[in-house]
């Protein structure tokens, strides 16, 4: 898929078709989902019951990532594939520490866009933009984004769930690189991705379910080495690309004796122009 092809608008809401964002909401115990989403989510849980724990860990990882980035003086965030609004969103975590922080949420799902715009309507330091990681040049020139985010200053780009649904045929590595080249030195990229290194037997069944949900035929699953490529051109922050429960845990003791999970994540810093 190329930036030469205009990004399609958000699809009309169809509650009879499962949706990945609403399935994620269900895994977190949310209420913004429909029967089709719950049925598909239960099929996922039948293959890998630990997915519910992984969703909770991913949300906790998001909080730790945002706190770290604010401590590194990041005051601008672009959140790609932001998903449905939940408790403790990026702007809430960041603005508790630095109230001047500005956050742009980027999504294509009509439910996500509607909920986020309603929730953030009165917050002048946040915005919601229609877009995705596959159309970086359109995103970077979007008036809504540019009205809040100054691309001459360092920015934190968060892509914590979207990439795991994008097959290589859509060139996600290339599109992340376009974003990397467009932001100044000092910017950070936080990336999360499910991997199947320790759970290869789950890959086939889960890929099949999400193929049906997304209406795609390609396989978007990746190993940790393939995910690491998203950090090309960036300096990885310690502890590097690791399983997310081990990324700067608030209490290292809580990482012991937990159910096996297999989401990885990390932060890379742009150090050269």
UniProtKB/TrEMBL annotation:
<dbReference type="InterPro" id="IPR006764">
    <property type="entry name" value="SAM_dep_MeTrfase_SAV2177_type"/>
</dbReference>
<keyword id="KW-0808">Transferase</keyword>
<keyword id="KW-0489">Methyltransferase</keyword>
<dbReference type="GO" id="GO:0008168">
    <property type="term" value="F:methyltransferase activity"/>
</dbReference>
<dbReference type="InterPro" id="IPR029063">
    <property type="entry name" value="SAM-dependent_MTases_sf"/>
</dbReference>
<dbReference type="Pfam" id="PF04672">
    <property type="entry name" value="Methyltransf_19"/>
</dbReference>
<protein>
    <submittedName>
        <fullName>SAM-dependent methyltransferase</fullName>
    </submittedName>
</protein>
<dbReference type="GO" id="GO:0032259">
    <property type="term" value="P:methylation"/>
</dbReference>
């Amino acid at each position: 898929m190329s930036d030469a092809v205009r990004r399609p608008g958000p699809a009309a809401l169809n509650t009879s078709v499962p949706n990945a964002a609403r399935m994620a909401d269900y895994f977190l115990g949310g209420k913004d989902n429909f029967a089709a989403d719950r049925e598909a989510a239960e099929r996922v849980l039948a293959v890998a019951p630990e997915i519910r724990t992984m969703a909770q860990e991913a949300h906790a990882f998001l909080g730790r990532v945002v706190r770290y980035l604010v401590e590194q003086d990041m005051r601008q965030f672009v959140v790609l594939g932001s998903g449905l609004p939940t408790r403790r969103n990026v702007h809430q975590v960041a603005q508790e520490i630095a109230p001047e922080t500005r956050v742009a949420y980027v999504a294509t799902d009509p439910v996500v866009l509607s909920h986020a715009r309603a929730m953030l309507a009165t917050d002048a330091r946040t915005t919601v933009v229609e877009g995705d990681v596959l159309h970086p040049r359109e995103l970077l020139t979007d008036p809504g984004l540019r009205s809040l985010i100054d691309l001459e200053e360092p920015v934190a780009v968060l892509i914590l769930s979207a990439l795991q649904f994008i097959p290589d045929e859509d060139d996600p590595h290339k599109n992340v690189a376009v974003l990397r080249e467009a932001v100044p030195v000092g910017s950070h990229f936080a990336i999360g991705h499910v991997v199947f290194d320790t759970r290869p037997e789950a890959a086939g069944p889960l890929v099949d379910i999400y193929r049906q949900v997304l209406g795609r035929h390609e396989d978007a699953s990746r190993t940790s080495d393939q995910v690491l490529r998203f950090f090309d051109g960036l300096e990885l922050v310690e502890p590097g690309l690791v399983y997310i429960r081990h990324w700067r845990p608030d209490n290292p003791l809580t990482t012991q004796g937990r159910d096996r999970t297999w989401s990885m994540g990390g932060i890379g810093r742009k150090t050269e122009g």
